[in-house]
Write a structure and sequence with these properties.
Blueprint: H1 3-16, E1 30-31, E2 33-37, E3 40-41, E4 46-52, E5 64-71, H2 77-84, E6 91-98, E7 109-117, E8 126-127, E9 132-142, E10 145-156, E11 168-175, H3 192-207, E12 213-215, H4 218-227, H5 229-242, E13 246-247, H6 257-262, H7 266-283, E14 292-295, H8 301-309, E15 314-317, H9 319-323, E16 326-328, E17 339-342, E18 348-355, H10 357-364, H11 369-389, E19 398-401, H12 413-421, E20 426-428, H13 431-437, E21 442-443, E22 446-447, E23 449-451, H14 461-478, H15 487-497, H16 505-523, E24 526-527, E25 532-536, E26 540-549, E27 555-562, E28 566-568, E29 573-577, E30 581-591, E31 595-604, E32 616-622, H17 627-662
Parallel strand pairs: 1-10, 3-10, 7-8, 11-12, 11-19, 11-20, 12-13, 14-15, 15-18, 17-23, 18-19, 25-32
Antiparallel strand pairs: 2-4, 4-7, 5-6, 5-9, 9-10, 16-23, 17-18, 21-22, 24-26, 26-30, 27-29, 27-31, 28-30, 31-32
Helix pairs in contact: 2-11, 3-5, 4-5, 4-7, 10-11, 11-12, 14-15, 14-16
């Protein structure tokens, strides 16, 4: 039979559990309720059985008896289903206990104790000659006529001289499945459904007598713990209960590994997984493990490969997920063995399929929990027996008990797991132990390998584009804010959460719009002048202008002067603007030439070069001397100065020469005028 057909057959068998009940062997009699019963009985042991009769059928002891009939042992689940439905095979022995030998714990209850014998057959004992799982019909009779009955099972365990039953490993898994929802501020919404589910999880962990592997949403757990005193107490309960069980890692917020991998966001998934582990570690003392992953939604090759790279060694699949996977090759589908899933042409990852039958039996017969517990354990024994009958080694097989969608189960888990833990032939196990000690499913060509789809529905591309745009805008807007302002951190937190499926597409749009509105309000807080002119009579000077910050907090802007003929000595200058006021800005400049020409003042965010306003037009009037004029004027002054120096020197020499001539001895005497 092909794997595909067997997958469908497996799913059909699983669903069939929901359709049968504990039908009596005789359709016209009432049903007894089981109060207590010995399930595992030794070769020379005794069976203690207490039943409750309806409609006052056991009120009087007159003519009352209780008959216990054992039928041939069953070897598989098909025979178990038939027996529960009242279709019993050949009987092997019957013991009828009369009213004189009955105990009456209560008015409507009947209790009997029946010995077990192996090699003899006596009226007082029930012969169970060999180990096995025996269907047993319990009939309440009055005057030899059956008035009420039930079908139960007895597990006759091997004696010292008989071969022990090789145990089948049994593991359990459960996960919270209530969807995580975030509000418009990307805070987890803690509702009644989430609280109830976590409370049911705590009940399950507290009552179970065997180890469980469970998964909880980290963000939801943390939110409930912080919500109120009741939430804190609930998480404390969970913390204490988890110490005997295994906690499975999960991303901080819901993020599908297949969708993340398709968008080349393996690093994002890895970071969220680490964050989720940190959240779990801060909420409970049990360290989460990455070696197990519960898969209840479609999984792609790339998604499985990502999980494998992160340390996952065993994938837990639901029956529905298994039935959606195309098969490669053919083999008998044995869900007590590991099935390989191809992640690349050369790599695979182990998987095991959840078996919902035992828990469905518990749910189906919840009104009679002692009987339901026996049915569930008997179902696992029937699976173990069929494995051994078909030549398999039960110790190299394992079964994972879980609900069809891996949700937290209800019912009497405590009674079921307690009976399981004391039943020879079954061995409670962890999923890690199951992954190590369970053989791979083989066909004639080797391990059976199933092909995962190359892709699944879902695209993170639009959300990632939104995240990138918001983060870029946030850097620019944040550079205007004072140090310590909390808004940038909140913008980044919101943007980083946009990829999670806990937010709808509509919520993503609303959050992005709200962040952009905050950015726009911040960038629009600066009022600028319309434009102005200024005069510069020297080579250097200062341009003065004012900017108004209409916000309630100080903001920083970057100022730039754009002109081919003016050079700002402090261009691209960051300026702090006081809140709700004008701030005068002095920008030192140097002129390259005379004349009248335009320039512009531009305002930007300190980071990101986001323009805060249209350029401010300014006109510069430069009247300082040019370089050539200075040169000519300087030369003229030098000529005049040289002429005056020469003239002064010439006059001085002339006066000196005249004085010397008059005093020379050869000079004629000076005639004094007549008086």
């Amino acid at each position: 039979m092909s794997v595909r057909r067997l997958v469908v057959a497996h799913a059909a068998i699983a669903l069939s559990v929901m359709s049968f009940g504990a039908a009596p062997a005789h359709a016209d009699v009432a049903a007894l309720a089981l109060v207590t019963q010995t399930f595992n009985v030794a070769p020379a042991g005794v069976i203690s059985l207490t039943v409750r009769a309806p409609n006052n059928l056991a009120e009087s002891n007159t003519g009352l008896s209780l008959a216990i009939t054992a039928y041939r042992p069953i070897a598989d689940r098909t025979a178990l289903d038939a027996a529960i439905a009242g279709d019993l095979n050949r009987n092997i022995d019957t013991v009828e206990v009369t009213s004189q030998n009955m105990l009456r714990p209560a008015g409507d209850e009947v209790q009997v104790v029946v010995p077990v014998e192996v090699t003899t057959r006596t009226p007082e004992a029930l012969q169970l000659s060999k180990p096995g799982l025996y269907p047993v019909l319990v009939e309440l009779r009055r005057d030899g006529e059956t008035v009420a009955e039930l079908v139960t099972f007895i597990h006759r365990v091997p004696g010292d001289s008989e071969r022990a039953e090789d145990p089948l490993r049994v593991a359990f898994a459960a996960s919270t499945i209530t969807s995580v929802h975030l509000d418009e501020k990307a805070q987890v919404i803690v509702d009644a459904a989430a609280r109830n589910e976590l409370s049911t999880m705590a009940d399950l962990l507290e009552s179970s007598a065997v180890p469980l592997s469970v998964r909880v949403e980290p963000s939801e757990l943390a939110a409930i713990a912080k919500a109120d005193a009741e939430g804190t107490a609930l998480v404390s309960r969970l913390d204490a209960a988890l110490r005997s069980h295994q906690l499975i890692s999960a991303p901080a917020y819901p993020l599908d590994p297949s969708v993340a991998n398709a968008a080349s966001q393996g690093d994002l998934y890895t970071q969220w997984l680490r964050d989720g582990e940190d959240v779990l570690a801060s909420s409970v003392d049990t360290s989460p493990t990455r070696t197990i992953a519960l898969v209840s939604t479609p999984l792609s090759r790339g998604g499985a490969g990502l999980l494998r790279e992160l340390g996952v060694r065993l994938l837990v699949l639901t029956p529905a997920e298994l039935s959606s996977i195309s098969a490669a090759g053919s083999a008998d589908l044995d869900t007590t063995q590991l099935i390989q899933l191809a992640v690349t042409n050369d790599a695979t990852i182990d998987s095991i399929v959840a078996d919902p039958r035992p828990l469905e039996l518990l749910q189906r017969h919840a009104s009679d929990s002692p009987l339901a517990n026996i049915y569930a354990v008997a179902d696992l024994l029937a699976l173990r027996n069929s494995t051994a009958r078909d030549g398999g080694d039960p110790t190299r097989h394992g079964v994972l008990v879980a609900t069809p969608n891996l949700e937290v189960p209800g019912g009497d888990i405590g009674g079921f797991t307690q009976l399981l833990s004391t039943t020879p032939g079954l061995r409670p196990s962890t999923l890690d132990d199951l992954s190590i000690r369970t053989d791979q499913l083989l066909d004639a060509e080797g391990p059976v390998t199933l092909e995962l789809p190359d892709s699944i529905p879902g695209d993170l591309g639009p959300r990632l584009s939104t995240v990138a745009a918001i983060e870029l805008q946030s850097v620019s807007a944040a550079s205007m804010l004072p140090e310590g302002d909390q808004r940038p951190a909140e913008w980044n937190r919101l943007a980083e959460l946009l990829p999670t499926s806990a937010l709808s597409d509509g919520q993503v749009d609303d959050i992005a719009t709200a962040i952009r509105a905050e950015h726009a309000a911040l960038l629009g807080s600066i009022e600028v002048p319309n434009g102005f002119s200024f005069n510069l009579t020297g080579r250097t000077g200062v341009v003065r202008f004012s900017l108004k910050n209409t916000n309630t907090i100080p903001l920083t802007v970057r100022v730039r002067l754009s002109s081919p003929k003016l050079i700002a000595s402090e261009n691209d200058k960051n300026v702090l603007l006081a809140p709700g006021a004008f701030t005068e800005i002095k920008l030192p400049i140097r002129a390259r030439s005379n004349g009248r020409f335009p320039a512009a003042l531009e305002l930007f965010t300190p980071s990101g070069d986001v323009r805060l306003a249209a350029p401010i037009p300014i006109t510069a009037n430069i009247t300082a001397l040019s370089g050539l004029g200075n040169l000519v004027t300087g030369a003229g002054l030098l000529v005049v100065l040289t002429w005056w120096v020469r003239h002064l020197r010439k006059n001085r020499r002339a006066r000196s020469a005249g004085d010397a001539t008059q005093h020379h001895p050869a000079a004629p005497a000076t005639t004094l005028p007549d008086s």
